[in-house]
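Worked example 3 (structure in, sequence out).
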């Protein structure tokens, strides 16, 4: 008999941790269903909360609409005996749901819809969704009511913090995510330590820094270790999407005083941020200093993996990250899979890193960012690991989209993704399509544009475009898309064609004639 979950008022921190440790082993019993390997009944409770540093999250326009990215987890409803409870801060437009149900091949939309419980906090404040849920006992009770059998249920989140742990305990179901106590492994400092344990190279640098003076000391030492170094990267421990990375340029004059003065002129990731505000966060959050590797040809691929409750390390995907911003430090999108020249190299390194994380008890999804560079054109690729994202990330939902549409899987030996009885698949994806001309587009308008221009994903051809962040477009002029093709060239072509169509259809604020 599964005990009834406690009430929030009765839950001390000690009781919460004890209950979490008792509940979490049940995650093993639903693992096969979660990975789509069986069709046993289960309930997936999805709380797509970005429970991140709020000062960093405010930099993200339309942050609450990022909760829509995990609507691709409606793939769970492909199992005709599965149920999904999906919670958001604001209501999801009905047409957006229709859009996803239409793409759920093999299952009648009415059948899938009947197994979905959609709940909402009706709170647009700039805080994490999990905070909002914990403030609403009746909403927690409604989530409980949507769970058919707590012994066959789990909570899926974007990232795991003590707030998500508390919610899991209040719902009485295990957390599909890393134990929050293991969060230090996913910081910039923790990542560097894990990479060294795994025997994977890291850029020269220093971790566990907290003050401006410690950063200054690290930069002076870095210059001594790397004579002639031109730039370094200063990173906040818990930033995301490159939004906490600042560039330091070494002065021509050597010495501590010159470094101290140059620290007032670091290139910040957000134009209107001051170095005082940045170092206030640095003091609170901690961080690292690393050499900025120049190289004649650079790229930043990533690998996404999953660790089972039994400790098995499972590769999911590789990507080439598309970076931008003032110093090419900000994540804008990705291309799947990573290039042939180094795909296996990063996958092998990622698995070694995953084995170290598994030894610490990490479970669920995570991603690892790498830097590859050549010292001369056409030369061999050098590799260093940069950071671990012990959570879902910007490459999670495009891959979920591919799974959602095709039902295929990654081939470990090649690093390619194959649809059932079909060719290998490729995509290009972004969360960062942004234009003032897009403002005012309703979900109906967007889907009309997609349909009339025949960009819609076709199960017959296995190619086409899938939008996400649809709810953000009218207010913020912001949109995400995944362009899927049967070759890299086809995926890229669809991506750029979609941009051209959107620009044409929104020119002068009216539909094209």
């Amino acid at each position: 008999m599964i005990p009834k979950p406690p009430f929030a008022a009765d839950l001390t921190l000690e009781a919460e941790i004890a209950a979490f440790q008792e509940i979490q082993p049940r995650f093993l019993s639903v693992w096969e269903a979660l990975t789509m390997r069986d069709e046993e009944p289960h309930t997936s409770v999805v709380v797509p909360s970005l429970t991140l540093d709020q000062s960093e999250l405010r930099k993200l326009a339309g942050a609450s609409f990022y909760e829509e990215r995990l609507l691709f987890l409606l793939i769970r409803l492909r199992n005709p005996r599965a149920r999904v409870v999906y919670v958001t801060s604001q209501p999801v437009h009905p047409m957006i749901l229709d859009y996803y149900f239409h793409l759920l091949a093999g299952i009648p939309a009415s059948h899938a819809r009947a197994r979905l419980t959609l709940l909402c906090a009706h709170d647009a404040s700039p805080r994490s969704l999990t905070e909002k849920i914990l403030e609403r006992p009746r909403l927690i009770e409604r989530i409980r009511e949507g769970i058919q059998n707590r012994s066959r249920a789990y909570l899926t989140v974007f990232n795991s913090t003590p707030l998500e742990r508390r919610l899991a305990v209040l719902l009485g179901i295990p957390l599909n995510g890393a134990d929050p106590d293991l969060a230090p492994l996913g910081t910039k400092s923790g990542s560097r330590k894990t990479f060294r344990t795994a025997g994977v190279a890291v850029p020269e640098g220093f971790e566990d820094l907290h003050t401006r003076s410690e950063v200054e000391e690290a930069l002076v030492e870095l210059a001594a270790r790397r004579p002639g170094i031109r730039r370094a990267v200063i990173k906040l421990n818990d930033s995301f999407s490159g939004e906490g990375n600042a560039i330091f340029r070494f002065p021509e004059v050597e010495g501590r005083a010159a470094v101290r003065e140059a620290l007032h002129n670091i290139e910040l990731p957000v134009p209107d941020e001051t170095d005082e505000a940045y170092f206030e966060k640095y003091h609170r959050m901690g961080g690292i200093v690393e050499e900025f590797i120049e190289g004649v040809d650079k790229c930043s691929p990533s690998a996404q993996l999953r660790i089972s409750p039994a400790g098995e390390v499972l590769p999911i995907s590789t990507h080439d990250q598309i970076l931008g911003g003032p110093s090419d430090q900000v994540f804008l999108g990705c291309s799947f899979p990573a290039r042939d020249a180094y795909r296996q190299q990063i996958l092998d390194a990622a698995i070694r890193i995953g084995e170290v994380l598994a030894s610490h008890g990490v479970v669920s999804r995570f991603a690892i960012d790498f830097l590859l560079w050549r010292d001369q054109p056409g030369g061999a690729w050098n590799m260093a690991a940069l950071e671990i994202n012990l959570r879902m990330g910007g490459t999670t939902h495009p891959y979920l989209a591919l799974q959602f549409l095709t039902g295929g899987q990654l081939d470990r030996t090649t690093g390619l993704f194959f649809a059932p009885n079909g060719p290998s698949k490729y995509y290009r994806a972004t969360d960062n399509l942004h234009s003032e001309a897009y403002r005012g587009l309703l979900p109906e308008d967007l889907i009309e544009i997609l349909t009339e221009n025949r960009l819609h994903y076709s199960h017959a051809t296995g190619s086409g475009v899938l939008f996400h962040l649809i709810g953000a477009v009218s207010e913020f002029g912001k949109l995400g898309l995944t362009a899927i093709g049967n070759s890299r060239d086809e995926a890229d072509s669809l991506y750029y064609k979609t941009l051209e169509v959107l620009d044409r259809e929104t020119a002068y604020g009216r539909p094209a004639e």
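Notes: Residues 488-505 form the longest helix (18 residues). The first strand starts at residue 42 and ends at 47.
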